[in-house]
Amino acid sequence: MNLPKLPLAQWIDHLVDWITTTLDPFFGAISTGIEWLLKNLVALLSTGPSIVLIILITLIALYTSRWGIAIFTFIGLLLIDNLGYWDATVNTIALVLSSVLLTILIGIPLGIWMSQNETAKKIITPILDFMQTMPAFVYLIPAILFFGSGVVPGIIASVIFAVAPTIRLTNLGIREVPNDLIEASQAFGSTTRQKLFKVQLPLAAPTILAGVNQSIMLALSMVVIASLVGAPGLGAEVYRAVSQIKVGEGFEAGISIVIIAIIFDRISQNLRKPLFGKVVSKKMVYTILAIVLLLGYIATAIHEYKPSANGSGNVGDQVNYKITGIDPGAGLMKATKKAMKEYGLTDKWTLNEGSSAAMTAELKKAYEKKEPIIVTGWTPHWMFKKYKLKYLEDPKGSYGKGESIHTLTRKGFSSENPGATKVLDQFNWKPSNMEEVMVDIHDGTKPADAAEKWVKAHKKEVAQWTKGAPRGGGKQVKLAYVAWESEIASTNVIAKALEQQGYDVKLTQLEAGPMFASIADGSSDAMVAAWLPTTHKDYYDKFKGKFDDLGPNMKGTKLGLTVPKYMKVNSINDLKK
Fold first, then answer.
1. Fold category of 29-301 in CATH
2. Which positions ≥6 away from 212 have C-beta within 8 Å?
3. Predicted model pTM
4. What is the DSSP string of 514-543?
5. Has residue 308 got a pLDDT over 70?
6. 434-461 pLDDT, tens digit each
7. Average pLDDT in the 491-512 region?
8. What gap in Å lies between CA 424 and CA 407, rounded to an integer?
9. Does residue 105 register a pLDDT over 80?
10. Parallel, antiparallel, or unpaired for β 504-510 and 476-482?
11. Nearest to 35 by CA among 149, 159, 140, 160
12. With respect to CATH, is domain 403-555 assigned 3.10.105.10?
């Protein structure tokens, strides 16, 4: 059918922009509240040596479950501590508890409403169907725009993803209460409120708790996805290991998540009927535990409270001593950590991990409101064309003198496909050329279309790349790339140039580590995305000798800390003042 495409994406973008602008104070208040909740919870769980929390969780497991689960809990948590993931585990536990708390506060009342009102059920049920079938990654996109990068969008996305079972099973549990019991309560003159709280909710409790248990598991399954927008914890450790192809570290972080999941699952399943409930009253135990946690939380909140200093002339106070970064495995992040150490910023400053998308979303939000922000930046990037930005001076040279982007091919590719190798070897362009394509892509043009537009407008440059290269004759060329705006642009452009020469080009999107691995093991033929000598140094050194380096396809790139030009700070040295 040749019907014109509905501009659904544009409609959604306009709706999100309108919501972001109109409800920004509301989202700001929610973000502040959740950050305050999580910060104090992490501080509470981190109080004292790790063995204190390990013993407390073990005692809860022992009281609710059997001895085997308690022993598993104690040994499992000790193993996590021994492997060096305790701080990440505390952050993960706090993230899951915060998500589950919000899930309960939202889910159970909605489930009760659905059980009492048919119209509410008819409206909410399709919404829940939509929420459960929509890929979890999609929730991160508006969450970043509404709440910025960091843990808050991770928690919000987790709540949206995990709340459905609590709502559904609360509704189901109440509706399955036998009618004769409902009629008996009505015969004794019970009010609707009494019927709900004295009959329906107690009898529906097992089903409701099953829903809460499922929500806990779903929230835990989101910890890795939430790390893409800067949520700390074990998810970030897994993401870092995947991007750096560190199998051992990935397994360690993964097994830590499994241990936490088993502990949460067994405890939550047995909360209603604890193993030792007849020995010690569960009401007394839960009341004491709740009081201790509440008092501890209040004390921690008072101790951690610091008045806002956003009006201060100190740039650190203005940005809350936060640098917004990108993927945890990126060489730029490694260089930034080195710079923070060399400039003495490690004591007060934090480097927020996330993704390049989360970083640019945070920058967009701050720039539009003329708020201070510091991000990890690199050139070429479309943000330098879209916004007025500047690099902070780096007098210590922590970020080096700039980088080049190299073209790599698998071993044997040059002899098997000399024509494509010649095109790839002659591929060379400028940062300004790349930024043209990047801006088009950012503004909504599909990468292939933006690349085709550039190739048509720059026939002279493309002719230099293909000069003397024989026609492809339908030979296949498999190009790998990492999902950075720069590499999406360059890979699509060289793909179009190869297609004009008669090659059948296949593109594969990978993380940085797997991208290098695919060239080394021969599953991909080439890539034009190796940033050297800093960003991809670790991957380059790891697989050196298993690929051919055709040299740089672009020079003049740059890394460093970036700020909007309206900020009155010019050097990394100024951050310590």
1. MetI-like fold (1.10.3720)
2. 100, 103, 104, 107, 165, 166, 268
3. 0.76
4. HHHHHHHTTSS-EEEEEEETTTTHHHHHHT
5. no
6. 989 998 988 888 999 999 999 999 999 9
7. 94
8. 7
9. yes
10. parallel
11. 149
12. yes
